[in-house]
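hiii, so i know i said id send this last week but things got crazy w the move. better late than never?? heres the sequnce for the chain we talked about at the cafe, plus the structure i predicted for it. fair warning i was half asleep when i ran it
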Amino acid sequence: QVQLVESGGGLVQAGGSLTLSCVASESIFRRNLMGWYRQAPGKQRELVASMTSGGTTNYADSVKGRFTISRDNAKNMVFLQMNNLKPEDTAVYYCNTPTQVTIGYWGQGTQVTVSS
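okay and structure toks below
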């Protein structure tokens, strides 16, 4: 069964922090690069952070130094620690893998709203 479940979003003031969590079915998670994507109103979905199963990370320039991706391979979970949040970080955040993105499967996402 293919499953992606994101949680941890909420309303936070600018400069605050949130930690997002995602649990994936093993068929999606195992040995796959996991990424966090976001989609702001009126904008295209973008990849903000990714991590390979071996621990190699990559970040969009807009979040470098503020966001940290991590994963727990034993629990099929991936996390996104977000610090120094800005209003422009407001979006629905999704976790996913390149394969699932290609076939168009997404979880429900979790809303992050940053007030100024």
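btw The mean pLDDT is 95. thought thatd interest u
miss u guys!!
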